[in-house]
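User: Here's a chain of 82 residues. Predict its fold as tokens.
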Amino acid sequence: MPSTAILLGTWARAGAGQDGRILGDVDNIATRNTRNGVKAYGGPLDGLGAVIARGILYVNSGYCFVGSALGNVLLAFSVGGK
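Assistant: Prediction complete.
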């Protein structure tokens, strides 16, 4: 069974499909350094869902839908940070 990603509030958490153990988690509301050198600010995960493509998990962090904290950044996570 493949691993799963569970998104709640401002945290993204990945768990193993076999036994549910947590493989990693991250607080999306933190300030991020981006590839183009501009600081970005994540936010709540109350918008569109995550997408997995070619082994990378993409999360839209900061879709301010219900008057929550502002921020807007597309986060990409991969195994080993590649």
